[in-house]
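call fold(seq) -> tokens
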Amino acid sequence: MSSANPAAFEPSAVGTEAADAAFAAYKQSRNSEADRLNHAEAKAQLLKKVDLLVATAIDNFQEQRDVTISPEQRNEAKQAAEQSVITLLDAEGMRDLQT
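ret:
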């Protein structure tokens, strides 16, 4: 395996895509008021899910391109995903408070 070309792997893009996927799944599972988790529980569950999605996306990227993604790039993608999903969840929480 070769080292990943920094231009070919975009940690922030991987992170953002994972956050969007995790948040979309969260919103689909939220069918009624009774199904809603409190904000802290939702955030914890989404962070776990987004971390798993990032790891899976990176593993798939490595397999498809026969490259190795550095721990620093993995961490950057994870941080981007976590920040993005927190932002999405906080925005959703603000909308909930306004309704």
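Residues 71-98 form the longest helix (28 residues).
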